[in-house]
Amino acid sequence: MSKVYDLIIIGAGPAGLAAGIYAGRSKLDTLIIEKEKAGGQIVITSEIENYPGGIEGETGPSLIGRMVQQADHFNAAKAYDTVIDLELKGEIKKVIGKNEEYLAKTVILATGAFPRPIGCPGEKELIGKGVSYCATCDASFFEDMEVYVVGGGDSAVEEALYLTKFARKVTIVHRRNELRAAKTIQDKAFANPKIEFLWDSVITELKGDGILESMVVKNVKTGEESEIIAPEEDGTFGVFVFVGFVPQTGLFVDKVQMENGYILTDDDMKTDIPGVFAAGDLRKKSLRQVITAAADGAIAATQAERYLED
């Protein structure tokens, strides 16, 4: 008979690792399943300044490395496998991977989400080198510089307003000639002297040798392209992309309750299936940060322990 774990955690980002630390410390027989390597999207972050207790010069990989060591210290086992299906109902849950099947009494879903990219040449190579998907994380790196915000919804405009606290000028690049954000948010943006707008425009290419130096912008109505070059005194500028997130929840469709692709939980990270919890960016929530993902993981593991006790 296959081994039955107390808890299986699917995903080894900050939420999954925090859950593993708390579960292991509580002496739960825990398995963390990750398809490739630990870290999630945080491993592409070159600098982290807002995680409490982080060391000077903290990076995504260094923070995740310490989390992995902590999870190992508390004997949370790891398996590198790609989950292809799950059976979550009943007392014993089954997680089906490409390599083998795993059984557990409780499961935490922590596969995360990733920002929707622009999808243009140069974007991937310049992530963390001028291209960002998180104003809260990276705004301070562009103190008194110029930045561009891609998007026109609530998140994009709110983040543009936040960036005005740091940048000397913020330009919102939007493919339409009007914003989609709520009227109250729009009014704040239009009233802010630091915010300008580049309407009917999309970014078609990002350029730079190790750091973002210029970008090509296309007018979607005229087809005309122009290149925006970093101010000489700065040598670079920021491009913050806010065109939505893509939750990694395709596996969970019709298995747990969801809304717009995000898993619904209560404050205790409980899904609508007994013994199944969700933590991190795949949840419907207001803030997606390392600290909130870790908090979700801690709560989910604690609730899994209580579920097992009951």
UniProtKB/TrEMBL annotation:
> What family does this belong to?
Belongs to the class-II pyridine nucleotide-disulfide oxidoreductase family.
- Naturally occurring in which organism (per UniProt): Dehalobacterium formicoaceticum
State which Enzyme Commission number(s) the record gives.
Answer: 1.8.1.9
The cofactor note from the UniProt entry for this protein is: Binds 1 FAD per subunit.
**Cofactor dependence:** FAD
What is its quaternary makeup? Homodimer.
Alphabetically list the UniProt keywords.
Disulfide bond, FAD, Flavoprotein, NADP, Oxidoreductase, Redox-active center
Q: Which reaction does it catalyse?
A: [thioredoxin]-dithiol + NADP(+) = [thioredoxin]-disulfide + NADPH + H(+)
Q: Which Pfam families match?
A: Pyr_redox_2
> GO molecular function terms here?
thioredoxin-disulfide reductase (NADPH) activity
FAD/NAD(P)-binding domain spans which residues? Answer: 5-297
- The molecule here is called Thioredoxin reductase
Q: What class of enzyme is it?
A: oxidoreductase
